[in-house]
Amino acid sequence: MESVPDGSVRWGMRLKSVESDMSLHFENGVVERGFDLIVGADGAFSKTRQFLSSEKPFYTGLGGYAMAIPDAAERAPDVNKLVDRGSVFSFGDYKTLNGQQLGSGNIDVSYYAHFDEDFTKKCGFDVTDVNAVKDHLRKELHDWSPELKTIFERCSRGM
Fold first, then answer.
1. Which residue in 61, 111, 132, 144 is deepest, having the highest Cβ count within 10 Å?
2. Per-residue DSSP letters for the chain?
3. Whole domain around residue 66: which residue ranges?
4. Which GO terms describe its molecular function (predicted)?
């Protein structure tokens, strides 16, 4: 940020749309014009995508959960030892369970598999409740190695 001229970045300005005249329309009603270059870095549903491609984002069939083990060395020494300051990636049956050690000492845990697009509406549980997610994963990964299942069992929060 030190190399960017003062006033170039204005925090709290949420972009609503980019129009064909390259004007930026913000949710607070402000409109900015006169740009030679606009960089869109707001993900799959970027407001600038329409200027690069007519292709619309679509659901690929993959979905997942993100959870965490805060202070893993203290709270989950077994998982901390397994991950060993790196990452563990496990794949099978079109599913993946991963653990990654962060510099903070936390371990980020993710699970991905094939889900119907409306899974979160029809699954019968709250996908933001880490305990409900762990119940689901116990069923999904019932025949996986107990050592690998410990990765999600030690999670204490979702992300």
1. 111
2. -TTSPTTS--TT--EEEE-TT--EEETTS-EE---S-----S-TT-TTGGGT-SPPP---SEEEEEEEETTHHHH-HHHHHHHTTSEEEEEETTEEEEEEE-TTS-EEEEEEEE--TTHHHHSSS-TT-HHHHHHHHHHHTTTS-HHHHHHHHT--EE-
3. 62-158
4. monooxygenase activity
